[in-house]
């Protein structure tokens, strides 16, 4: 197999100088895209906000260097847990393989004995190891896992006959996407709690980000999806899509495996956005193709932080996103990647302690919607802008 798109082979220095064993010749990285620099985000925070809003504003200003993108080729390596690779007991670690928060959790235990007592199953031939942590969560499939599969199959052209390693319990939506978009219907199941895999040749694609500061290759993945035949078919079926959408987690809370949180005045929030012409959307009720098409046409997207709102990665650069109560910086860095305007609104009742139920300030939300409409300019019809924009000053703090 040869690297595609002028990829270069880079030998990895994984040998421990205090250990006589060597990994020489068993670990290389094929670089498919060079290192890059993440762009900062254009962010708004309406006045009178809580202290918690300084966190996303600080992340918005960051533009860290992102490592190169490619595939790691590891021979006779052990896979323990989710895509954690070892060569002769040494952790194979890089910022495009293991996010720092996962690495931190590993550092709290004795890495040399991490799951070392589990039975070993040998796997012959070539295997693609691409499933990251939190594989039950759609947002991680969207931002971590599926882009890695795309890198392996579309850029590196891994043969369809390879073993595609999936943990037991992989959600049905993920299996459907793998089949429809990548033509993968056969895979190898992996019981991460009961076995370790010894793989003859493991292909491990890069994450498209370092700690969710995105490499521009993520835009390539998005553009590939936007012209996929399934999305084109969804466009033909739906014919049109609303320009204003509000993403709700209301019907998803009881089954979510992610952060448990809710809005105490949710009915009032929904009443407000619907009165302004927003379509309230529950993404989990739509096919993936319909979700991609819907977000690709949206110009103002508001909603609670989470996997559903992460679909704004499919929205255009002139879109504005209003994110309620972010739990991390991811929605901000998605906006930076896609060159979108983002407004962050945190609830006052979350300062000082962790609360799973928070009240949205309706006045600040209304002002944020008005500012988003101003940013949209002529992208939305004049009668829609007139309905959304209010006369008073929003008192925003822009960050360049």
Structural features:
alpha/beta, 12 helices, disordered N terminus, disordered C terminus, 400 residues, nine-stranded mixed sheet
Describe the protein's architecture and organization.
About 30% of the residues lie in helices and about 25% in strands. The protein has about 400 residues and is α/β, with parallel strands linked by helices. The strands form five sheets. Strands 1, 2, 6, 7, 8, 9, 10, 11 and 12 form a nine-stranded mixed beta sheet that branches. Strand 19, helix 10 and strand 20 (about 340-345) form a beta-alpha-beta unit. Helix 3 (about 140-155) runs parallel beside helix 4 (about 170-180).
Helix content: 25-40%
Secondary-structure-based class equals alpha/beta
**Outline:** globular
Beta content = 15-25%
Distance between the termini: 44 Å
Radius of gyration: 22 Å
Poorly predicted sequence stretches spanning 5 or more consecutive residues: 1-11, 13-22, 396-400
Largest beta-sheet details:
9 strands, mixed
Overall mean pLDDT score? 86
| Overall number of strands | 21
Q: Count the DSSP helices.
A: 12
Can you summarize this structure?
The protein is an alpha/beta fold and 400 residues long. 30% of the residues lie in helices and 24% in strands.
Write the layout of secondary structure elements.
Elements: E1 8-11, E2 27-33, E3 36-37, E4 42-44, H1 54-60, E5 65-66, E6 69-80, E7 84-87, E8 90-91, H2 100-107, E9 120-129, H3 138-155, E10 163-167, H4 172-182, E11 188-190, E12 196-205, E13 209-210, E14 213-214, H5 217-226, H6 229-238, E15 244-247, E16 262-263, H7 266-275, E17 279-281, H8 288-297, E18 300-304, H9 307-310, E19 320-324, H10 330-338, E20 341-345, E21 357-358, H11 362-376, H12 382-388
Parallel strand pairs: 4-20, 9-10, 9-12, 10-11, 15-17, 15-18, 16-21, 18-19, 19-20
Antiparallel strand pairs: 1-2, 2-6, 3-5, 6-7, 6-12, 7-8, 13-14
Helix pairs in contact: 3-4, 6-8
